[in-house]
Amino acid sequence: MKKIFVCMLSLMMLFLTACGNTEGAAEKKTTTVEKNVKSDSEKQNMEAKNKILVVYFSRTGENYEVGNIKKGNTHIMADMIAEAVGADTFEIKTVKPYPADYRECTEVAKKELAENARPAIEGKVSNWQNYDTVFLGYPIWWSELPMPVYTFIESYDWQGKTVIPFCTSAGDVLTGKEDNITKYAKGAKLRKGLGIRGKRTQDNPESVKADVLKWLKELGFNAR
Ligand SMILES: Cc1cc2nc3c(=O)[nH]c(=O)nc-3n(C[C@H](O)[C@H](O)[C@H](O)COP(=O)(O)O)c2cc1C
Description:
By secondary structure, this protein is α/β, with parallel strands linked by helices. It has helices at residues 2-48, 73-85, 102-114, 147-154, 181-184, 198-203, 205-218, and strands at 51-56, 61-63, 67-69, 88-91, 131-139, 162-169, 189-190, 194-197. The protein has two domains: 1-44; 49-218, 3-Layer(aba) Sandwich (Rossmann fold). The strands form two sheets. Strands 1, 4, 5, 6, 7 and 8 form a six-stranded parallel beta sheet that branches. β2 (61-63) and β3 form a beta hairpin. Residues 58-59, 63-64, 72-75, 102, 105-106, 109, 139-143, 168-171, 198 line the site of flavin mononucleotide (FMN).
């Protein structure tokens, strides 16, 4: 009887030990899988970092020198830059659209500038933290950046980012107002921008592309 009891006890012990081992193995397996998952996501994060973003504000409708346009001048330039350096794009859109009529739009913009307004904008850049270089494009409005561009700038953390301005206007100039960007984009480093006459983006996009590529190469980008 005693022998049978000892035998059963040993069998139970053996069974429990075996169960314990299986659990251990399962645990080990999970840990390894988790580790693999973690290292994969870490890898993805690494790849996701150092990305380039092209942010722009641009308006369709009637505009200076170009008549009624379906794609804004700055938008055309933004797409050229994004294509050349392989960047993502984000369009700054106001909740309340600007008038399609040029004169009316200049009146609204004049008032917003006088009030130093911050018109509400739609949407958010996802994974902002993954971008280290941000091209920021805008049309010149009353010799300034349009106020919604400041709304955008003030909505993000710019620490450690490099910001590269570009604009379109009545001339091939940047106007100097880009120096204001880092006053609001605190912690960002400003690099040399490019200003293009808006009319050229519509009438002669190839000549604009040549200027854009030259500028990007001067900045050290492998632009194509
Ligand atoms: C409200 C408003 C104000 C403008 N003010 C100026 C200006 O002060 N200087 C200038 O050179 N062009 C000015 N322009 C012309 C635009 O800068 C130019 O047409 C630009 O290329 C428009 O770009 P977009 O099509 O991307 O909006 C103004 C245009 C608008 C609509």
